[in-house]
Amino acid sequence: MSTGTSEAFSYRSGELHAEAVALAAIAEAVGTPCYVYARAALEVGYRAFAEAFADDDVGLCYALKANGNLAVIRTLARLGAGADVVSEGELRRALAAGIPPDRIVFSGVGKTRAEMAAALDAGIHQLNVESLPELEALSEVASGRGQTAAIAIRVNPDVDARTHAKISTGRKENKFGIDIDHAPAAFARAAALPGLRPVGVALHIGSQLTQLAPFRAAFERVVPLVEALRAAGIAIDRLDLGGGLGIRYRDETVPPIADYAAMVRDAVGGLGCKVTLEPGRVLVGNAGLLLARVIYRKEGAHRRFLILDAAMNDLIRPSLYEAHHGIIPVRESAPGTRTAPIDVVGPVCESGDTFALQRLLPPLDAGDLVAIQSAGAYGAVMASSYNGRPLVPEVLVDGDRFAVVRPRPTIEEMLAQDRLPPWLA
Question: Can you give the pTM of this predicted structure?
Answer without folding.
Answer: 0.94
